[in-house]
Amino acid sequence: MPIIKNLAQENLTDKDLFSKRTIAVFDFDGTLTKKDSFLDFLIYSFGIYKAIKNFIGCSFTLLAYMLGIVSNHTAKERVFKSFFKGYPYPDFVKLCERYSLYRIDEILCQNAISKVKWHLSEGHTLVLVSASIKEWVYPWAKKMGFKEIITTEPEVKNGYLTGMFSTPNCYGEEKKRRFLEKFKDRSSYILYVYGDSKGDIPLLKIADRAFYRRF
Predict the structure, then answer these.
(1) 138-147, pLDDT tens digit by residue?
(2) What is the pLDDT confidence band of residue 215, given thresholds at 50, 70 and 90?
(3) Which residues of 15-45 are buried (b: 16+ CB within 10 A; e: fewer)?
């Protein structure tokens, strides 16, 4: 993984620091958490035996992803579909809320949370940009003080999950695209970005202050 060297931060002036608002963007899985929340959520919801069984059923798709034959979006959607196709959406929301409010705190990285609290104390705008599914990230993120939550969103038809996503998986270039869609005038704010994987690099590259696997 290449080291992110962001030259933009060298051009910040004292005038910038006092005249522009500051936005702090955090990735979720592996940055704010110590483990991947997708797998953790599936085990929390269905137990380890069903989780393993469904992953075995998706093994060809997962192998194809590792070999670069199918995309991150396709692989993740295939796994999600194996668990949730036809699942009542109101029940899914309740399940996600329980996970979000009672489980996520147990898998957090405390150094990362200290940095979140520092940004809050400085009056900075907190933005979460994650490939995780909106429903299990949103309640926790709102509780923590994030003003904008940009995530992957599931498709719902007639009150049931289809197993598909209504948005592209929020990963890589899609993270940058959706962030800039919300915060268009890049020159009008100072941007901090925190990430831990190649899926965060496009956002890290446009930051004034980029933090890759560090705080």
Answers:
(1) 999 999 999 9
(2) confident
(3) eeeeeeebbbbbbbbbbbbeeebbebbbebb
